[in-house]
Amino acid sequence: MEIVYVYTKKRSEFGRQCNFSDRPAELHVDILPDPSLAVNFIERNPCDTPTQCTQEMSEHEVNTERFESETRGINHVEGGWPKDVNPQEMEQTIRYRKKVEKDENYVNTIMQLGSAMEHCIKQNNAIDIYEEYYEEEEILEETEEQPSAKTINVFRDPNEIKRTATGLSWHPDGSRKLAVAYSSLEFQRATKDMSFDSYIWDIENPNKPEMVLKPVSPLVCLEYNPKDSHILVGGCYNGQIAYWDTRKGSHPVEMSTIEHSHRDPVYKVIWLQSKTGTDAFSASTDGQVLWWDIRKLNEPTERLVLDPTKKGNLDNALGAISLEFETTMPTKFMVGTEQGLVVSCNRKAKTPAEKIVCTYSGHHGPIYSLQRNPFFPKNFLTVADWTARIWSEDIKESSIMWTKYHMAYLTDGCWSPVRPSVFFTIKMDGTLDVWDFLFKQNDPTLSIKVCDEALYSLQVQDNGRFLACGSQQGTATLLEISSGLCSLQRNEKALATAMFERETKREKILEARHREMRLKERSRSEQGKEEESKEVDTGESAEDLIARAEKEFFEVVEAEVKKREKEEEKSKVNMEKDVCEEKETTLKVYCFQASELSL
Length: 599
Hints:
Number of helices: 5
CATH class of the domain at 149-485 and 494-509: Mainly Beta
Organism: Lepisosteus oculatus
Subcellular location: Cytoplasm, Cytoskeleton, Cilium axoneme
Helix content: 10-25%
Pfam family, one: WD40
Shape: flat
Strand order of the largest sheet: 1-28-27-26
Keywords: Cell projection, Cilium, Coiled coil, Cytoplasm, Cytoskeleton, Dynein, Microtubule, Motor protein, Repeat, WD repeat
Structural class: alpha+beta
CATH architecture of the domain at 149-485 and 494-509: 7 Propeller
InterPro entries: Dynein_IC, WD40/YVTN_repeat-like_dom_sf, WD40_repeat_dom_sf, WD40_rpt
């Protein structure tokens, strides 16, 4: 049904405009006050109501609770036994096994599985599906990617009183874990409430450490055993050596005795290449290098005093602060000292004096890092004072390459394990520098600000892609660098070899020139000394020399006085002679005049 409503209006009213006019006010409604309604209201006096032209807004912040994840695992040792069989009872298990083995279904099943297993084993022996055919020639084309680095995770010291992350060590199998040693190296400033704990972190879980290591003294350094990833060795602040087995808990399995340990903090400990995988050696600022077997830590197996005079005097020993050991050179090792010297040593020498082979000098402060190039072991890197230097074993006078002097102090450094021309350094201003001397020598290829506090420790993963930096406030920062900095470039080994050889040759020429100049100066000084010795008796005492000088002085004065007296006498004689000659001339003139008058 359609509903229609029609509006009607006069035609004259369509489109007519409104006409406004003034008229007096009209009262339409008058509502009288009602006093009874006043009880429902509260009088507000004075009444101020602010108004704003803009829209009123309020700011609120909401922070969700941090989700803490925890990894747990179950190790299934033995199971599948019936309820009436106790797996701990040997007789019951043997009886049940014999019962099962007599079953025909068991024999048939084993025969079927055996043939399938034999086929799989033969396949595995025939073809290795994981074989890498071009492992040695893993060279990538040069890309235009800019060098960069990004932060992956940050691991903070869980304690309220923050300590310095003094040591870092990557897990040898897969590098999925990072061991961090925490200690305060500020002498006598450690508080009583400061924790001694160090931690092992899972790099994918920065919220909570995977394991806590509880030493009796704060750990300064910590190293995983490359042969057994469950074992770690650490150097303590009080000079002791301790080792842990992660399967046996947080407390150390064994520790060295105080009387046979270092007297100062152990700044570096390194595992040695041995058949047992239990040998290590440590260095400390007390001037000793000690060798240990962790199976018997009651005393060191060997001891070396870093006395440069080769007399074994501990009072003259150089304080060791860094160590270097290359597995391809099992008898050689190097020590970086507080005095800025690198001491090259030979462990297999017959006498303690012969163990110190030579020294390299060139730094003005403690050598915090010392490492051989993994591709060219004859060349090694040192980091100290405000520079990093690259040395050659053949040249002891000076380094072959060095960085510029930085404004901030350098605290650690290391080579890249995959690129021979790349190394890393960290500084007190919280900066990480990546150097590629084939690309640029005067400035770092990449410089990144890791944190606001000072960086103290640095460790690179074996694949060269990830690196960890430890800071003064106990923060360990995990960084990932770009693929260009962790991938071997075309002809990089040949170019690095050529550069090392060229710089070594240049330094040898300069060293020979300096030696020649020193010989000339020495010969000149010796000639001068010989001439002086002819004139002066070197055996005279100071009093004799003074008396002889006074005598010579007065002799010279007297000689001068006599000389002047002789000159004066000579001048007087000459004057008298002149007077006589004048008188004789005058007399002759007078006689001549008299003769003329007589004529």
